Amino acid sequence: MTSEPTHEAFLGAPRRAHRGRTFVYVLRCQGQDLLKVGFSHDPIMRFHTLHRRFYAFFDLDESFLIETDRLQEGRRLERLFIERWPEHQAPAPLSISSAAGGHTEWFRGVGDSVLAIAERLAERYGHSMHAPLRPWLRAQMMDRADLLYAWSDRLYQIIEWQTANQPDGAQDCRYSRMLCDALNAMESVGIKCKGLVPGPVHRWYLANRTWPP
Questions:
Q1: Using CA atoms, how far apart are residues 10 and 31, in angstroms rounded to an integer?
Q2: Which of 35, 82, 140, 175 holds its CA 20 to 30 A away from the CA of 2?
Q3: How far apart, in whole angstroms, are the C-alpha atoms of residue 196 and residue 193?
Q4: Using CA atoms, how far apart are residues 53 and 182, in angstroms rounded to an integer?
């Protein structure tokens, strides 16, 4: 039996071990001086668990990553950020997934100083920094492009079957959301999906990419 397509099958880490590599992320919300700080072995999946439309919810040009070789280093850097702004701690936006455990380490009113602080920390401890976030995301998503063709086709076949065999109210919208979100994420970092997905999938996407919200 063919397994059901999932976000993890496409957005999950490329097929190689992280070997301790840990990313500290600082995500700025679109149009707000509100930051989320954290760390993850697989930032893209972490961003997705925080908000399924992370590519639109967070400002990819004002967010960044610091790459470390070991989990302990990532934890230390995250703690340095958290301890710097205790008076700026803020509640998470209501749209952030509570199931993802993403309601801690939010800060409001920090301003632009966060980037300079991050650059000093990265230089002091010899870590690579990816700022802004968008080019790094683009490279990572291109690493996943070889998975996209078959994955998107599998989702499309499910969507088409539901359209042909089920009334509107009975259709499972998860599959449409999943496909829209993945292709929107690719497009948001400058990767054109035409040619990376089957022709029918691309035509479906052009007709449905703004749905559902």
A1: 29
A2: 140
A3: 5
A4: 9
User: Do 26 and 91 share a domain, yes or no?
Assistant: yes
- 157-187 pLDDT tens trace: 999 999 889 887 777 888 999 999 999 999 9
Task: Count CA atoms within 13 Å of residue 12 on its CB side.
Answer: 10
| 213: in domain | no
Contact at 8 Å (CB) between 58 and 51? yes
DSSP-assigned states of every residue in 27-76: EEBTTSSEEEEEEESSHHHHHHHH-TTHHHHB-TTT-EEEEESSHHHHHH
Domain that holds residue 55: 9-139
Three-state DSSP state, 84: helix
pLDDT digits (tens, 9 = 90+) for 114-150: 999 999 999 999 999 999 999 999 999 998 888 899 9
Distance CA 93, CA 163 (A): 35
- As a dihedral over the C-alpha atoms of residue 94, residue 95, residue 99, residue 100, rounded to 10 degrees, the angle is -110
